């Protein structure tokens, strides 16, 4: 059984690219099911990424910060 790990990716493209080695390292452990919270349009970079169990567009501007918090709480991530 793997832990469901939510990773909030950075907002800027360069920072997203620099975060990729961390995602790769977590994936290689085999201990986690990686769920990536990514702002559009960067979420499209991960749509076909086999390392991500799920890509969640961070549309908190559309649903509001409290709506996004409720959505994430309901998803019951382990970490």
Protein model, in words:
- With 79 residues, this protein is of the alpha/beta class.
- The chain is 42% helix and 24% strand.
- It contains 2 helices and 3 strands, in the order E-H-E-E-H.
- It has helices at residues 13-29, 60-75, and strands at residues 3-8, 32-38, 52-57.
- The protein has a 3-stranded parallel sheet, covered by helices on one side.
- The radius of gyration is 12 Å and the shape is globular.
- The protein starts with a strand and ends with a helix.
Following the backbone from N to C, one meets helices and strands in this order, namely EHEEH
Class computed from helices, strands and strand pairing = alpha/beta
Helix content: 40-55%
Whole-number average pLDDT?
90
End-to-end gap: 14 Å
Seen as an oligomer or otherwise, the chain set is: single chain
Principal-axis shape equals globular
Q: How much beta, percentage-wise? A: 15-25%
Radius of gyration: 12 Å
Helix count equals 2
Number of strands: 3
In a nutshell, what does this entry contain?
Helix content is 42%, strand content 24%.
SSE layout and pairing:
Layout: E1 3-8, H1 13-29, E2 32-38, E3 52-57, H2 60-75
Parallel strand pairs: 1-2, 2-3
Task: Sum up the structure in keywords.
2 helices, globular, 3 strands, alpha/beta
């Amino acid at each position: 059984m793997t832990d469901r790990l939510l990773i909030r990716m950075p907002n800027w493209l360069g920072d997203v690219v620099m975060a990729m080695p961390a995602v790769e390292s977590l994936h290689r452990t085999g201990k986690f099911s990686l769920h990536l919270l990514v702002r559009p349009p960067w979420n499209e970079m991960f749509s076909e990424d086999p390392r991500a169990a799920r890509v969640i567009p961070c549309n908190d501007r559309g649903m509001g910060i409290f709506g996004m918090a409720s959505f994430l709480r309901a998803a019951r991530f382990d970490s």
